[in-house]
Amino acid sequence: MKTYLKLVHLEIYRFRLVLLGLMAMTSAIQLIGLQLAMRDRLQAIRGQLTREGLSLAQYAERYNGIPLGEIWSHRESWMTFPIVICIGGIGLYIFLIWYRDWFGRSAFVYRLLMLPHSRFLLYVSKFTALMTFVFSLFALQIGIVAVQMTMYRLRMPDELRVPRTLVDTIRGMDLVLFIPVRLHEFLLVYGFGSVFVLLLFTTILMERSYRFKGLLAGLAYTAGTLMLVAWMWAQAERGTALLYPSELLAAAIALMLLNAALSLWLGRWLLRTKVAA
Amino acid sequence: MRRRYGYSIGLAVLSAAVLAAYAGAAGSDSNPPYKLVTLEGSTEAMKGFVLEGLGSRLSADGRRERTGSLFLSAPFDDLIQPDRYSSERNQLIIAHRSFMRGHRQDESFYRDGNFVIGADMDDSLSSVKIRILDLAGSGSKEFTVPVRANAAKADNPLYQDKTVLDIQRIENRIHLLVRGQHDSPGNGPAIWTFTDYIVDKESGELLQAEEIYQTVPDPDPYTETSVELIAEVRELEPSSSVMLNVKTIKRKGPDAARSEQDLVLKDWRIIGYDYASGDTWDLPKAGMDRLKQGLAPRLHEGKLYAFNERNAEPLIHVLDTRTGEPLAEPLKLDRSGSAGLRSIRLEKGLIYDNLILNKIPTVVVYEEKTRKVVYRGAVERTDSDSQSVDYQYFQFNYYGE
User: Residue B341 to residues A65, B356, B357: CA-CA distances in angstroms?
Assistant: First the structure.
């Protein structure tokens, strides 16, 4: 256990600067974006008030208040761009977390593979570290929305403010896809995402074991699984399949669990018997 | 030790704390801050109905739940999204799961006390698959009934489509009302046909194909005829007749936009069809004159209802389908606080009026026979910090009992 935690720490520590960079970039862009969006919206409203000779109260009665989500919709890309960069960064690091051990300075993998513990600990610790990065960015995003709500409360006149809870605010944004408010959505998004990471880990280890042939086999395995799940999804959406949508969902979950188990077993076997420095 | 691993421990603990707090907040947020409050009458008439708006689904019996926020799991619901008139099908899915397996999206269904009948056109548009479930317990059976196009008229059209619009059972005969559409020779406007295919319920044999109506292409290229079916508003319920709303519209010219101002109504007929006798008739002038006041026709329990939901203070006319004469004095509904934000629904002899009344989303249910209000309810905010319901439109849906 101690070795596992040390390895997890090692992986987190190695990524710390990139993670801090991603966090800083996300916070800066999203908070500045909201500030600019509120400024533009309030300027437009003030212009309208002057043109139509309305007071704020009259404006609110005629056009209703302006919720935080609506302000965001005018500068949506400022919210989504950092998220896409974070997903891209973590996605790229799924590969780098392995390959930097082989191709980084002083071929670190020699030392890691020589540790007097199960090599599978390497696999699990890298996976744990990646999940820690994902959920720390998830937590940061919740924190940013909380700060944005405070900015909205301070800046938006009382008459135009639409009171919402944190959860309700997130529910009203496209952001809810990445920060689900429903437990089963959370389990599906992050469950399927985790299995996808395991499939890529298997692909990397197959490439390390069998080089080009292994890479092809791993990619085919990953693509095949994703296509099967996408096909099930399409069948559920069309609504004409013999299986009911809830049964297709159960089948998709079973398939992903099976693949997770297969990936873990294969990863363990490859690390133990095939992967060499 | 703690200082050495401080970065990792701090990151994990902080993230876990935020996620735990968020999970707690999301968990306690499962109930929306709105409810449907009964102001008058009994909630019995509201059984199975819900109001949906502001991210909430509200029932008259006090149930309320959040809606929306579904992405990955959205298509994995066995039930069809309830809308104004098609959600009765969800009851079939719940009650007859194996009969409906793979057939949730079939074109048409029928249900009475003894049988459930489903029908779907095959991809080649040459036959209809009929499936019959005997509720007395003798299982289900299937027939494939050929529905050939009239070769002389269709003449291998480039485009054609066929849909089973309505199913009825009259004693031992099944009636399938099929709408056909194909392009006319010489690139004219599409030709629409409405045919009643009469099938023997026991043998599946096609007994007769009765053409109810067919559009005739107008030589004027700017004139088009549209035909809309007026069937019993409750999709599955037995009905002895259907009606066709046939409108011939002339555009002012080739470049005329299809806006109201550029269209002239040349001819308007409402054609009735009786399944049992095969009779067809035109709705007489008395009925047409009433509809021409800008009213939309609906068929329910053998009566023709006519109203305009967009009027601030609509009148519900109830007409005889054959004579067009009023069967009763028109029912005057409450004046809406926001014209356009209103929906009227007919069900089991009741009239459901969903409107904005004094700024508040309100449902009023009238009994058609007695004109009495049997239910009146309004949406109320339970948390003063949440968004106001003033002038907010809530959709009125049948969600199933």
Answer: 19, 7, 10
In this prediction, residue B83 carries a pLDDT of: 67
SS3 per-residue string spanning B345-389: EEECCEEEEEEEECCEEEEEEEECCCCCEEEEEEEEECCCCCCCC
Task: Please give the ipTM for the structure prediction.
Answer: 0.89
Report percent pLDDT > 70 for chain B. 93
CA distance B142 to B160: 25
B212 with B194: CB under 8 angstroms? Answer: yes
Please indicate whether, in this complex, the C-beta atoms of A168 and B386 are within 8 angstroms of each other: yes
Shortest CB distance from A185 goes to which of B71, B104, B105? Answer: B71
For residue B317, give the nearest of B285, B364, B351 by alpha carbon.
B351
Rounded to whole angstroms, how far apart are CA atoms B145 and B121? Answer: 9
User: Distance, in angstroms, between A238 CA and closest chain B CA?
Assistant: 9
pLDDT digits (tens, 9 = 90+) for A76-91: 889 899 999 999 999 9
Residue position matching structure tokens 């947020």: B29
Nearest by CB: B7 against A12, A167, A238: A12
The model's pLDDT over B212-258, given as tens digits with 9 standing for 90+, comes to 999 988 878 788 889 999 999 988 999 999 999 999 988 876 665 55
